[in-house]
Automatic annotation (TrEMBL):
One of its GO terms (molecular function) is DNA-binding transcription factor activity. Keywords: DNA-binding, Transcription, Transcription regulation. Residues 2-59 form the HTH lysR-type domain. Belongs to the LysR transcriptional regulatory family. This is DNA-binding transcriptional LysR family regulator. The lineage of its organism: Bacteria, Pseudomonadati, Pseudomonadota, Gammaproteobacteria, Methylohalomonadales. InterPro entries: LysR_HTH_N, LysR_subst-bd, WH-like_DNA-bd_sf, WH_DNA-bd_sf.
Length: 296
């Protein structure tokens, strides 16, 4: 029967390039590593490696097995951690994890709990949730897929962000027409901002003009600061730059535009269920932001 030790040896050899390096990494002897692979090859009925003088080459069969082996080892590590060290695994979307979650995590740790943090783009956090690799996800959108529970734990306002010398700095708020006329710098895909903006402008029969697109909010802010364009960003992501006078943020007209922040977890949590319940109690009810109006 195939066992995890054999799979761990296969992964280590592919990652480190030789039986000797893999054995050192695993804390076993090279003959033991060879024995693990020999048994695995016998069970699968195929060769897994071609030994060369400079580097051990995996066969096509070994490469086909590799992603499944990694997945099985990951599941085993998670099962072990859940039973032996049931710390909460929290995944946060990039903006939440970079700019917003720190006070919440500090309170969690001060209450005597432990946690592991993963900060990734929104679609990646959803994927980690589905794969059971994190216990709870904090995201800027949620599509209400089956098998999960969620709550809205907060919201933040989307603002038009411009460099200090931009003409919009003299405005109380930016109208939909002004927003539609100005090419916008796009940010990280999958945050839901584009969908919110399209809905907001569609109420007035308008569409957005998206210029350059960047992979993260920090890159967008630097581009705005250097005069490459304007963007639509969450208030919490630009607060420091605005306070230093490096950027200027202007509310949107017609009631503004807000983005809900969600916490999501599986309907049947594992041994961390109690911790998920405790963490949810830390999540304050969403605070309503002041509504801002100006003439259209």
């Amino acid at each position: 029967m195939i066992n995890l030790t054999q799979l761990a040896t296969l992964v280590a050899i592919i990652d480190h390039g030789s039986f000797g390096a893999a054995a050192t990494r695993l804390g076993i002897t090279q003959p033991t590593a060879s024995q693990h692979i020999k048994r695995l090859e016998n069970q699968l009925g195929t060769a897994l490696f071609i030994r060369a003088s400079s580097r051990t080459q995996p066969t096509a069969s070994a490469l086909a097995i590799l992603p499944h082996a990694r997945n099985m080892l990951s599941v085993y590590e998670r099962l072990t951690r859940v039973v032996q060290h049931p710390s909460l695994s929290i995944g946060a979307s990039s903006n939440i994890g970079t700019y917003m979650i720190q006070p919440l995590i500090r309170r969690w740790l001060q209450n005597g709990h432990d946690c592991d943090m993963v900060v990734r783009p929104n679609p990646d956090i959803a994927h980690l949730l589905e794969g059971g690799e994190i216990d709870i996800g904090l995201m800027e959108w949620w599509d209400r897929r089956t098998g999960f529970e969620y709550l809205q734990w907060g919201e933040d306002e989307l603002l038009a962000v411009v460099p200090p010398e931009h003409p919009w700095t003299g405005l109380n708020c930016v109208t939909p027409q002004q927003l539609s006329d100005e090419p916008l710098l796009g940010g990280e895909p999958g945050t839901g901002t584009g969908r919110l903006l399209a809905t907001y402008l569609a109420r007035h029969g308008l569409t957005a003009a998206i210029g350059m697109t960047f992979s993260n909010t920090e890159a967008v802010k630097r581009a705005v600061r250097h005069g490459l364009g304007v963007s639509l960003l969450l208030r919490g992501t630009v607060a420091e730059e605005v306070s230093r006078g490096e950027l200027h943020a202007v509310p949107l007209a017609d009631g503004g535009l807000r983005k809900a922040l969600y916490a999501i977890w599986r309907q049947q949590p594992d041994a961390t269920g109690e911790q998920i319940h405790s963490f949810r109690k830390l999540l304050a009810p969403p605070q309503a932001l002041p509504t801002r109006y100006c003439a259209l």
